[in-house]
Amino acid sequence: MNNFVFHNPTKLVFGKGTVEKIGEYLKKDGIKKVLLLYGGGSIKKNGVYEKVVRSLTEHGIEKVEVSGVRPNPVLSKVHEAIEVARKEQVQAILAVGGGSVVDSAKAVAAGFYYEGDIWDAFIGKYNIKKALPLYAILTMSATGTEMNGNAVVTNEKTGEKFYFGSKYTYPVLSIVDPTTQFSLPKEQVVYGAIDAISHVMEYYFDTVGSSLIDRIDEGIIKTLIETTEIILKEPENYEARTNYCLATTLALNGLTGMGTNGGDWSSHELEHSISALKPEVAHGAGLAIIFPAWLTYVKDKISDKLISFGKHILNLKDEITPERTIKELKNWYSSIGAPISLKEVGIKKDDIDFLVEHATKHAPFGTVISLNKEDIRKIYEIAL
Ligand code: NZQ
Ligand code: ZN
C-alpha cells in the first residue's frame, strides 16, 4: 500500500425524504439566492423539481433557473449559466439532476470567478483557484460526481470531451434520495452500474493496492451486479436502490483509490473519445465496450488480478483464466442490455482515426501499460 492523503469535504445526505431538506441546509449556510441548474425535464416529471422549489420558498431562498443541460453536457450551456449567475449575483449553484448537470454546475461554479473561458481549466491552461459553493441533488447515481471534484464537459466547437479535477469544486453538500431514481429508464440503471463498476476497476487493476481495498472493491462491484439485476426487475425496490446508490458514490469518492498509484484510467480516456464522436452514446455504454478491450490488451500484466476478479466477483469456479474472466464480464454486460462492440453503437473502422486522434491528445496515459498512439489504435481495433 502506498502512502496516501484522504480528504473529502462533501457532506453526504442520504436516504428517503432528504430532497425536502435542501432549503434548510442552504439557509443554515447563509445562502439567500441560488442558480438552479437542471437538465431536460425529468425532474419536473418525477416531482423532484416541485419538492425543491417548495423547500426553497419555505426557507426564503430566491432562485434563478437555467435548464436544458443535456447528457454528455456541452460548454455553451456552461457559458450561458455563468452569464446568468453573474448577472443575478447568485451566492451558490444548486444542481439538480444526474452527472451531466452536476459536472456542468462545477464548471459554472469555477467559471463564475474566472475572467477567461472556463474551457481553459479543461485543457490545463487554468488552475482553478476559487469557485462558488455548489450544492447537488443527485437524481441519477453513476458517476460519483456528488462526492468528488471532477467535471467532464464537451466543447462542441472543437469536438473535444475533456475533464478537470479541483479541490474547489467538490460539492459542499450532496443529497442522494434513492426514491428519486425510481423513475430512471432501465438503460440508465445499466449504464450507471457499468460506469461505477469501471471506476472501481480502474483502481482494482492498478499495479499498487492493498488487500483491504481489494476486498472493498470486490464488495462494491458485487453489490452493483446484484442490485442492478434486482432493480431491472423491481425498479421500486428501495433496499436495492439504496445499496446501488451508495456503491456508486463510494466507487469514486476517494475510498477505492487509497494506497494505489491513483488508478489507471486508460479506459476512461478511451471512452471519452467515443462519446465525443457520438454524444448519443452514454458514458457507461462506451465503457462497456472499451473496458473489456483494454483488459484484453493488458491481460498478461494483470493476469493474477483478473483471476481474482473472476473468482471473488464473478463467482467463477475451476479453470479460471484471464480470458474467461473478460468473457464472463462481457457476457454479463450483454445480459443486462449493454453494447459490447463499437459496431453495436454505429462506430465503424473508418471512425477509428478520429477516436485515436482525440485520445492521443492526452497520451501517453495508463499505469498498467503506458499507452501510446499505436497501443490506443490496437485497443479500438479490439473493440470494433
Ligand atoms: O436531462 P434529464 O431530463 O434530467 O434526463 C436525464 C438524462 O437524460 C436522465 N435522468 C437523470 N435522473 C433521472 C433521469 N430520468 C428519469 N429519472 C431520473 N431520476 O438520465 C439521462 C442521463 O443523465 P446524465 O446526467 O447524462 O447521466 P450520468 O449521471 O451518467 O452522467 C454522465 C456524464 O458524467 C460524466 C460522463 O462522461 C458523462 O458526461 N462523468 C463524470 C464523472 C465525474 N464527474 O466524476 C466521472 C465519470 O467517469 C464520467 O466521465
Ligand atoms: Zn466514469
From TrEMBL:
From the Swiss-Prot or TrEMBL record, what is one GO molecular function term?
butanol dehydrogenase (NAD+) activity
Q: Does the keyword Oxidoreductase apply?
A: yes
Q: Does the keyword Oxidoreductase apply?
A: yes
- Reading the lineage from the top rank, the first entry is Bacteria
Record's GO cellular component, any one? Answer: cytosol
Give the Fe-containing alcohol dehydrogenase-like C-terminal domain ranges.
Answer: 190-383
Provide this UniProt record's keywords sorted from A to Z. Answer: Oxidoreductase
Domain called Alcohol dehydrogenase iron-type/glycerol dehydrogenase GldA: residue spans:
9-178
The protein's name is: Iron-containing alcohol dehydrogenase
Q: What is the lineage of its organism?
A: Bacteria, Thermotogati, Thermotogota, Thermotogae, Thermotogales
